[in-house]
């Protein structure tokens, strides 16, 4: 799509330059190519930087060409002075654009107000065409973001089912590929969400950024859980009960709202832990300790969801005594 927009902006700039009679219509097309960007906000920022960098470069070049003449070595002096000056003025994105107009002036070997005005007109036509095309159309990201979310939620669901299986059977094997895939998808989603925000000039919606950032935080918690799972090397009744939490979480993870079911189940389990007899062996103590720490990691995971997801509006909260028995 960016290639298509670049082609349209280039053609539009050349046609406008030819229609208005401005010399150097092809230069307007080249400036349009340099002006097309991936988002509306970035386009506005970079095109502004390119325009003002070019004006600054033109003024400096006109002074140098007027004083020193049109010699190749003067271009080297221009580069040595102009590039640091443009970068210091925070118009670094416009260095290439300014070079295009300055080299065009050098090729014409003429310093006059008419030449200056022509270059400014080309800048306005070329960069303006790119800005116009960028603002008129940007692909809608909602469908892509929703698809990435479905894939991320699916990977999380598999991860939790695998954790539940490992708690029930310490010899259960899992290659963990879903964890790597989820991390890549979350990074991809964050990039897409940021682009979507940059395309919304008024009242940007940060909901997708919040979602993918939430998942990124939760991945850190999941990695901590997996380290604790590796310490559960025997089947334990507490592990069987804790597996129910992850069974439930593998369902809840795909919900848009925060259901709170897993949180209530976790509270029940913690209460059960307090009423159980103390471990009788060192091995039992280590395993139960790992399961308890796992539950604490799960609590922190749920806390992130609770902050970032809206609560489920119409669910009753009163089924506390039967959750773990289902």
Automatic annotation (TrEMBL):
Keywords tagged on the record: Cell membrane, Membrane, Transmembrane, Transmembrane helix
GO CC annotation: plasma membrane
Domain Putative aromatic acid exporter C-terminal: 142-305
Membrane-spanning intervals of the chain: 43-65, 72-91, 111-137
First-listed, main subcellular location of the protein, grouped into a coarse class: membrane
Pfam family of the protein (one): ArAE_1_C
Keyword match Ribosomal protein: no
Topological type in the membrane: Multi-pass membrane protein
PANTHER family: MEMBRANE PROTEIN, MEMBRANE PROTEIN-RELATED
Name listed for the protein in its UniProt record: Putative aromatic acid exporter C-terminal domain-containing protein
Annotated source species: Paenibacillus macerans
């Amino acid at each position: 799509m960016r290639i298509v927009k670049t082609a349209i902006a280039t053609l539009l700039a050349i046609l406008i330059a030819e229609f208005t009679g401005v010399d150097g219509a092809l230069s307007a097309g080249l400036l349009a190519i340099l002006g097309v960007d991936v988002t509306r906000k970035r386009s506005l920022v970079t095109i502004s930087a390119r325009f003002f960098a070019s004006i600054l470069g033109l003024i400096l070049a006109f002074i140098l060409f007027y004083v020193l003449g049109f010699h190749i070595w003067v271009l080297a002096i221009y580069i040595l002075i102009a590039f640091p000056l443009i970068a210091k003025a925070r118009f670094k994105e416009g260095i290439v654009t300014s070079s295009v107009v300055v080299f065009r002036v050098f090729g014409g070997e003429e310093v006059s107000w008419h030449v200056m005005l022509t270059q400014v007109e080309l800048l306005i036509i070329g960069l303006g065409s790119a800005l116009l095309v960028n603002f008129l159309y940007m692909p809608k990201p909602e469908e892509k973001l929703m698809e990435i979310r479905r894939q991320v939620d699916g990977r999380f669901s598999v991860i939790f089912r695998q954790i539940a299986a490992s708690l029930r059977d310490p010899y259960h094997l899992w290659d963990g590929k879903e964890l790597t895939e989820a991390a890549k998808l979350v990074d991809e989603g964050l990039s897409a969400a940021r682009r979507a925000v940059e395309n919304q000039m008024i009242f940007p919606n940060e909901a997708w950024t919040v979602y993918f950032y939430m998942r990124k935080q939760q991945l850190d918690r999941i990695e901590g859980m997996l380290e604790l799972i590796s310490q559960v090397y025997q089947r334990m009744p507490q592990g069987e009960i804790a597996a129910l939490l992850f069974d439930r979480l593998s369902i809840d993870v795909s919900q848009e709202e925060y259901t709170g079911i897993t949180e209530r189940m976790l509270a029940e389990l913690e209460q059960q832990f307090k009423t159980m007899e103390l471990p009788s062996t060192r091995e039992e103590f280590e395993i139960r300790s790992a399961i308890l720490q796992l539950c604490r990691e799960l609590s922190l995971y749920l806390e992130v969801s609770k902050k970032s997801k809206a609560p489920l509006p119409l669910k009753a909260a009163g089924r506390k005594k039967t959750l773990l028995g289902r």
